[in-house]
Design a protein that fits this description.
The protein is α+β, with helices and mostly antiparallel strands and 401 residues long. It has one domain: Peroxisomal Thiolase, Chain A, domain 1 (3-Layer(aba) Sandwich). The protein has twelve helices and 17 strands. A nine-stranded mixed sheet has the order 5-4-6-7-1-8-13-12-11, sandwiched between helices. Strand 16 and strand 17 form a beta hairpin. Helix 3 crosses helix 4 and helix 6 packs across helix 7. The chain is globular and about 60 Å long. The chain binds 3-hydroxy-3-methylglutaryl-coenzyme A (HMG). 3-hydroxy-3-methylglutaryl-coenzyme A (HMG) binds next to helix 2, helix 6 and strand 12.
Length: 401
Amino acid sequence: MTGNGVSGTVGIHDLSFATTRFVLPHTELALHNGADIAKYHIGIGQRAMSVPAVDEDIVTMAAAAAAPVVARHGTDGIRTVVLATESSIDQAKAAGVYVHSLLGMPSAIRVVELKQACYAGTAALQFALGLVHRDPAQRVLVIATDVAKYDPDSPGEATQGAAAVAMLVSADPALVRVEEPSGLFTADVMDFWRPNYREAALVDGQESISAYLQAVEGVWKDYREKGGRALGEFAAFCYHQPFTKMAYKAHRHLLHCCGEDTDDAVVDRVLGRTTAYNTVIGNSCTASVYLALAALLDDADDLSGRPVGFLSYGSGSVAEFFAGTVVPGYREHLRTAAHREAVFRRRPIDYAACRELRAHSLPADGGDHLVPTQTEGPYRLAGISRHKRLYEARCGLSRHP
Ligand code: HMG
């Protein structure tokens, strides 16, 4: 289907997110490096960043995000789990297989991991939509999970973060019907990348902002050429938010390219409700667009029947713009209290503690090593033995011995 079409009635049926045990307020970073706090609060629009405990990683966050979805809907009809990440823990095995095991899911399921920087969560969603179109009786569990890590004392450090979003994709969705067409854009740029031998990403900050803006222009042009909606039809826009000010830069750029008014009030009206989680969690990479959606649904006045635009960007670079319509009655299915609790229960730490946590890595000697208990979350990384990660559900069940 093309041209503002609701593609069948397929879309996001449930959405749940999880983040980390610890949080570093930007005031602590500013105390360490002497930056004016306004640079963070106003200049990049960030107030805090989630910091994983030593026993948290993309798998524990993914399982914590997905567990409430599986608890509410069961596993019937789920034949695919797609996990998107750019903070992969293994070059071969999909992280989603650990999640599948921790959640006790049936064996008749395919599990796969997708990568293309921060864009891969949207690739996973589109993959899922295609599967459900082919067989509307099926449901797909999509998980976007990431830990964004830059070198200490680099400009990117202020944009670190971590979170996972789990979405159940189904026919007759309760939250958002995803529409055709999509606008697509790919360009080979080295704005941000992470070679296999590095834990922290490399980035050319200014180049990455230009590449993002170029992609915004590209996806919008393609979206309109394929018969997409006009700009004025959208109630809100969920952008990838490596830092929340980036969404404002991107939307102003889009308005400017379309010859529209770029007034602060106009921009704030369509973006203001999308930043509440990203501004205190930081860059969650593949999860970021869908944290923007969570914030919008949790915070905004009734959006029933209103179109929302999604702009997903992943460095390197690939981007996509698509629309979704909010389903009447969606508010009964939200997890607002749990989402706010995930943010508020994090324990604040100072910069020295954050740096220590960031420096921690699992021993690579093939020996048996336990990981200290720090997280209070439902799943933890308990240790490593013969190069195998050992995960544990809070009920005490040890997996993958
Ligand atoms: P920087 O170079 O240290 O900061 O780092 P700056 O000097 O550019 O300042 C940032 C903003 O704060 C500027 O605003 C300043 O004017 C303002 P702008 O001019 O851009 O509107 N500012 C102040 N405002 C108020 N009071 C003050 C004050 N001082 C300064 N006192 C940079 C910024 C983004 C480069 C850095 O954080 C970085 O390298 N981040 C990582 C890269 C990144 O996030 N890029 C975004 C686009 S790429 C993307 O989204 C993909 C990504 O998620 C990866 C993936 O796909 O996997 C990153």
